[in-house]
Amino acid sequence: MVLNGPNLNLLGSREPGIYGAHTLADVEGLCRDACARHGFALDFRQSNHEGVLLDALHEAGAAQAAGMLAGVVLNAGAYTHTSVALHDAIKGASVRVIELHISNVHAREPFRHHSFIAPAAQGVIAGLGVQGYALAIAALADHGNRNGNA
């Protein structure tokens, strides 16, 4: 599962100097290709609403527990820096999450330097552009291969 938070529907037109020219549809295609390379089906979602993301994380936790999901790539956008609720959902659902940022949040405004998600995530990828999504999917696949449940 790949979850994208607020304003990521604006990729391609929103601050291309920071986020690049790729659209969210481009990112979905990249993720679909990366998933296919690892034998995964893709569930790709975007929402500007925190509660929708929470529900998706709960759903993902149940799917992972049932052996139907390798984990979640989560680009929570600005919710990364504000949402204790997303942190709690990840922990409460016991879902494996790779936190992802297209830009290097640590080279940006100071308020972007803190993540409420990182302490609950398996790993964090930041600043590698949209290719970070493929790397995050590969990391989930590698984790599954090491644990015999890819």
Give the class from helix and strand content and strand pairing: alpha/beta
CATH architecture: 3-Layer(aba) Sandwich
Strand order of the largest sheet: 2-1-3-4-5
The H-and-E topology, N to C, reads as: EHHEHEHEEH
Shape, per Cα inertia axes? globular
Unreliable parts: none
Instruction: Give me the CATH superfamily.
Output: Dehydroquinase, class II
**Gap between N and C termini, in Å?**
14 Å
Number of H- or I-type helical stretches: 5
Reconstruct the topology from this structure.
Layout: E1 2-4, H1 16-19, H2 24-37, E2 44-46, H3 50-65, E3 72-75, H4 84-93, E4 97-101, E5 123-126, H5 131-146
Helix pairs in contact: 2-5, 3-4
